[in-house]
Amino acid sequence: MSKPAGCKRWSVAEGHLAKRAGDAEPDGANDVLWLLNASAHEAHVEIMVYFEHRVPAGPYRLTLLPERSRRVRWQDLEGPEPLPIGTDFASVIESDVPIVVQYTRVSPGGTGAMTTIAHWERCGM
Amino acid sequence: MSKPAGCKRWSVAEGHLAKRAGDAEPDGANDVLWLLNASAHEAHVEIMVYFEHRVPAGPYRLTLLPERSRRVRWQDLEGPEPLPIGTDFASVIESDVPIVVQYTRVSPGGTGAMTTIAHWERCGM
Amino acid sequence: MSKPAGCKRWSVAEGHLAKRAGDAEPDGANDVLWLLNASAHEAHVEIMVYFEHRVPAGPYRLTLLPERSRRVRWQDLEGPEPLPIGTDFASVIESDVPIVVQYTRVSPGGTGAMTTIAHWERCGM
Amino acid sequence: MSKPAGCKRWSVAEGHLAKRAGDAEPDGANDVLWLLNASAHEAHVEIMVYFEHRVPAGPYRLTLLPERSRRVRWQDLEGPEPLPIGTDFASVIESDVPIVVQYTRVSPGGTGAMTTIAHWERCGM
Question: What number is the ipTM of this complex?
Fold first, then answer.
């Protein structure tokens, strides 16, 4: 079988966790990471989160089943500490098998929707 | 003639098929893949679709005429089975000649519009 | 001086020219290509436009002054024929010096704003 | 430790500084650059800004602390001259260590939100 789609390191420079975990912001904003593991192997994913005024948090660990995709909200991340809320941050997503990462924010009653493919590197390995 | 624009494998980590095939979501959301075949040859495209809770669907096959573009909605895909509706998914788009893929969601009465170039690889071949 | 920023070929798989040249769509949508020539040389740019149901149009030619950026609307393009209106299309943008291309659609009274960096290739030359 | 995430040169072809520094546009639009320095070293960043009708401005200099992210508004940039207001521009962001750059415009009362990863190059160095 040919090499699975994707790369082993992805970065997103924007992120925000709503003020109450599990809830949306006052304007309804909700950040999501879309993750795809198109490979035939489990992907072990580690997410480091970077802030402006404090040391990084993480790694937050996720397992992606083979040939599955997953929608991950920041409040779903379980790790060494809860993610600070009401704060901006960036993230680096590393995986031991190639994956694909897309960042989306949707604000149903607010400022609209936006999405971007994340920055990718460590491809073709 | 020089090599045509684009690459042979593209990935989009987000996708959603509206609850009724051919219709939009309650909020008017509608996903679209924009495909460009700028080459002088027919492009034979295969789309695999990946879910969180079930095995992948596909391949869904499309032919792109030479030097033509095409707007493809998820509900337009014909393949081994209808795409599950009301469900999130990701997709990998492979072509035998270089193409270009862009993902767009528009919600006229809803959460706005968003677009991103897809993740590309297998370029320069 | 070091190599200027950017690449020599860019692709955008989505595009739409409003029904009346110079005007916006009923929903106010307006497509824009943002072009940056950060080099010390004039950039001679050729844009080919690809449709679903007819042969490509172009090349549409633009000159970008050295160290200048430019906002280009589809209706600003002058070439061998006017761009068909009310129709979807894709585009390939080629330049003889490295440039940067970003696609944006804004709908003030409509479905919101969206932007994406275009697909790039022919970099580092 | 492995190479930090990111690249040393990034480009954004769209930008706009609101009419009054520190304020938003009449439609509430506000441009932001999201910067991530995931490395263990300070990042010395230089931003050049390119216009349609005048010579470039800059370099505007920023320092990013190690393992920190930062949200930068155009009006926050301090350099050899204030950025012209009410004007479109593009930017090239260079850093002496790898960083990640994302461009976002949010218009709370206006045309919605949009984001894109910037064009990257000079990676893997």
Answer: 0.92
Q: Which two tokens stand for residue C62?
A: 């633009």
- Cα distance between residue B114 and residue B104, in whole Å: 6
d(CA B14, CA D59): 38
Residue numbers in A near D108 (CB within 8 A): 27, 110-111
Neighboring chains of A (3 or more beta-carbon pairs < 8 A): B, C, D
pLDDT at D30 over 50: yes
Cα gap A125→A11, rounded to integer Å? 18
Contact flag B14-A107 (C-beta cutoff 8 Å): no
Nearest C-alpha in D relative to C123: D121
C-alpha to C-alpha distances, C116 to A116, A121, C11, C34, D115, nearest whole angstrom = 7, 19, 11, 10, 7
Selection from B104, C31, A12, C11 nearest residue D104 by Cα: A12
Counts of helices then strands in chain A (DSSP H, E) = 0, 8
**In angstroms, rounded to a whole number, what is the distance separating the alpha carbons of residues B100 and B92?**
13
Q: Report which of B110, A29, C114, A117 is spatially closest to residue D113, judged by C-alpha positions.
A: C114
- Measured at the CA of C104, the angle between CA C101 and CA C109, to 5 degrees, comes to 165
B112/C113 Cβ within 8 A? yes
Instruction: Look at D113 and B113 and tell me if their CB atoms are within 8 Å.
Output: no
Q: How far apart are CA B101 and CA C71, in angstroms?
A: 23
User: What's the average model confidence in pLDDT over C92-103?
Assistant: 98
Give the CA radius of gyration of chain B. Answer: 15
Count Cβ neighbours within 10 Å for each residue of C90-120 and write b for 16 or more, e otherwise: bbbbbbebbbbbbbbbbbbebbbbbbbbbbb
Q: How far apart are CA B72 and CA C14, in angstroms?
A: 11
Tokens of A21: 């975990």
Cβ–Cβ under 8 Å, residues C60 and C46:
yes
| Local confidence pLDDT in tens for the 125 residues of chain B | 478 999 999 999 999 987 754 555 555 568 999 999 999 999 999 999 999 999 999 999 999 999 999 999 998 898 889 888 888 999 999 999 999 999 999 876 667 899 999 999 999 87
Contact D114 B116 (CB under 8 A): no
Residues 6+ apart with CB under 8 A from D7: A119, D98, D99, D100, D120, D121, D122, D123, D124
Tokens 């491809």 sit on residue? A123
* Distance separating alpha carbons of residues A57 and A51, to the nearest angstrom: 8
What pLDDT does residue A109 have?
A: 61
CA gap A46, A33 in Å, rounded:
13
